[in-house]
Write a structure and sequence with these properties.
- The structure is a single chain.
- This protein is of the alpha+beta class and 570 residues long.
- It has a domain of 201 residues: Aldehyde Ferredoxin Oxidoreductase,  A, domain 1, CATH 3.60.9.10.
- It has 23 helices and 17 strands.
- The protein is globular.
- The two termini are 27 Å apart.
- The mean pLDDT is 97.
- One of its GO terms (molecular function) is electron transfer activity.
- Keywords: 4Fe-4S, Iron, Iron-sulfur, Metal-binding, Oxidoreductase, Plasmid.
- Its cofactor is tungstopterin; [4Fe-4S] cluster.
Length: 570
């Protein structure tokens, strides 16, 4: 029996409710959006106790079905002021799935800082968290394991979230216990901080209950086989990881460089910030370049980066971090970036928003491009809630406005991720129209050369990517399996049916994907957003980006066919 859990933090009461199998299938991002819309979160101040914080998993969570254990975190974003779903991998969703906890809703504000603890038997405890306050995530994680044992998973708030910094995300434990898998974007950590919840600890059962065990076991084997036979999965994600995208975008001309002034950092043969350079270097030092963040995943696109002495620096180093905290700030040394990434993980902050914010300080002339010492000092300053830290932790849009800058790369107040919309146009359209703010994960088409395509074809590519991303997010699936899952929809739905005992047709996939998009756009409409909020910053339309010399071509006025679909009633 699947259940939901609603926690009244002020009264310290927990309310369990049974969730029918047919509703469990509408999990993850679909569930967070539905809960937020039903509770009319668009009416509340994002940093008020009334703003719900929702954690939701997909119907295959808790099993060994590869890359099916992601956790969606939903709330009204204090960064964008619209709806937000941020999701992450690791072990937290796996633990929730084994408890058969479809979704968890945090309401109100705790009188004191707490660790919310869920036991194997379904008890809910409100443990004191005073000893964890002010600590970086790595030390806080060590203390959680010391207090509760090794068979736990957790969602953890870093020090920036404690003082409601909008850079803050929520860190999930990985399979080795690191607090390094972040639901990072949109300031979701600030909402958790407002509720005075330092961590959510879940005891891991060690087994998952499904309706048809033989069918689920066979589905797990078949899916793993399909992934291992897929060239994109094994030759790109498994072999190199997401950092391989840095090599592609640098050659393609869509890499953010020095606050989106250029699309290429160096000639491809001299480029040191991608997987072609970092992967062999890391392996030669004894690092891991094939590593799973969640139980059962055969994609294993994560990594463990070590220094020249073979000592671990960070896990993982991902493309978005390379793009925004690295090349967008003018860095060209991967070892320096790895150390900054470690600091960001310890702080529990979004490396996209952080990198875009630091680049604005360089844009203002406060430091030269690529000044590692300056960047390190700014990150270290975020540990304590000084006036400087609170200023930086507001995020790119607000810092840019305060500095009086014109070149501020945001949409709906959220920093644009590592795909220049002048070059990677289908992803740029996604970042414009998605209710999430500038977020590539809402529908990415990073390799698509669009200049020879018709406008309607580019719009369709973006829409298809958005539907597929939303369906994956709702089923708790990592999108890096998309080259298989997006083509094997009938098989995926059959696997869900075997786990839940339901009888969904393959149409479930599109119903989830399109339903999510319409829920989210409905929410933002009720929150006061208009199509004008979708416009790219002016400099993208005015400044040709080297080396291709492109300017942005798409305005909200050109996106009518998408709006017609997205504005239908959910």
């Amino acid at each position: 029996m699947w259940r939901s859990l609603r926690v009244d933090l002020k009264a310290r009461k927990a309310y369990w409710q049974e969730v029918p199998p047919e509703e469990v299938a509408f999990g993850g991002r679909y569930r967070t959006g539905q809960v937020l819309l039903e509770r009319e979160a668009y009416r509340v101040d994002p940093l008020s106790p009334e703003n719900p914080l929702v954690f939701a998993v997909g119907p295959l969570a808790g099993t060994g079905f590869s890359n099916a254990n992601r956790t969606s975190v939903g709330t009204r974003s204090p960064l964008t002021l619209g709806i937000k779903e941020a999701n992450g991998g690791g072990t937290f969703g796996y633990a929730l799935g084994q408890l058969r906890l479809a979704h968890l809703v945090l309401e109100g504000e705790s009188p004191e800082w707490v660790v919310l603890r869920l036991t194997r038997s379904g008890e809910v405890h409100f443990d004191p968290a005073q000893d964890l306050l002010g600590l970086g995530n790595f030390e806080a994680a060590r203390r959680l394991f010391a207090a509760y044992g090794q068979r736990i998973a957790f969602a953890l708030l870093g020090p920036v979230g404690e003082y409601l910094g909008l850079l803050s995300g929520i860190a999930f434990s990985d399979i080795d216990g690191r607090p390094s898998r972040l639901a990072a974007r949109g300031g979701v950590g600030a909402v958790m901080g407002r509720k005075r919840v330092k961590a959510i600890v879940v005891e891991v059962l060690g087994k998952a209950e499904v309706v048809d065990k033989p069918k689920v076991a066979e589905a797990i084997r078949r899916y793993a086989k399909l992934l291992r036979e897929d060239p994109l999965v094994m030759q790109f994600y498994n072999a190199i990881g997401t950092m391989g995208m840095a090599d592609f975008q640098n050659a393609f001309g869509g890499l953010p460089v020095r606050n989106f002034r250029e699309g290429r950092l160096a000639p491809p043969e001299a480029f040191r910030m991608g997987g072609q350079y970092i992967a062999p270097l890391n392996k030669s030092r004894g690092g891991k370049h094939t590593h799973a963040c969640m139980p059962g995943c055969v994609i294993q696109c994560s990594n463990v980066i070590v220094d020249e002495r073979g000592e671990e620096v960070v896990s993982p180093l991902e493309y978005e971090t390379i793009g925004l905290l690295g090349t967008n700030c003018g860095l060209n040394d991967p070892d320096q970036l790895a150390r900054l990434n470690r600091l960001a993980n310890d702080l529990g902050i979004d490396t996209i928003e952080t990198g875009a914010t630091l680049a604005l300080l360089m844009e203002k002339g406060l430091a030269p491009w690529g000044d590692y010492a300056f960047m390190e000092a700014k990150l270290k300053a975020l540990y304590t809630p000084s006036e400087e830290a609170r200023f930086l932790a507001q995020g790119t849009a607000r810092v840019g406005e305060a500095l009086g800058l014109r070149r501020v790369p945001v949409i709906k107040r959220q920093a644009i991720s590592a795909y220049d919309p002048r070059v990677v146009e289908a992803t740029g359209i996604t970042m414009m129209v998605t209710a999430q703010g500038a977020d590539h994960t809402a529908g990415n088409a990073p390799r698509l050369e669009t200049r020879a395509m018709k406008a309607e074809e580019i719009l369709e590519a973006s829409y298809t990517a958005q539907v597929n991303a939303a369906a994956n997010d709702s089923l708790g699936l990592c999108v890096f399996g998309g080259s298989v899952t997006n083509k094997e929809v009938a098989f995926v739905v059959e696997s869900v049916n075997a786990a839940l005992g339901t009888d969904f047709s393959p149409e479930l996939w599109r119903k989830l994907g399109e339903g999510v998009l319409r829920l989210e756009h409905r929410f933002n409409h009720l929150a006061g957003f208009t199509h004008e909020d979708d416009r790219l910053p002016a400099f993208f339309y005015e400044e040709p980006v080297p080396p291709k010399g492109y300017t942005a071509r798409f305005h909200p006025e050109d996106l009518g066919p998408l709006y017609e679909r997205l504005h239908q009633e959910p």
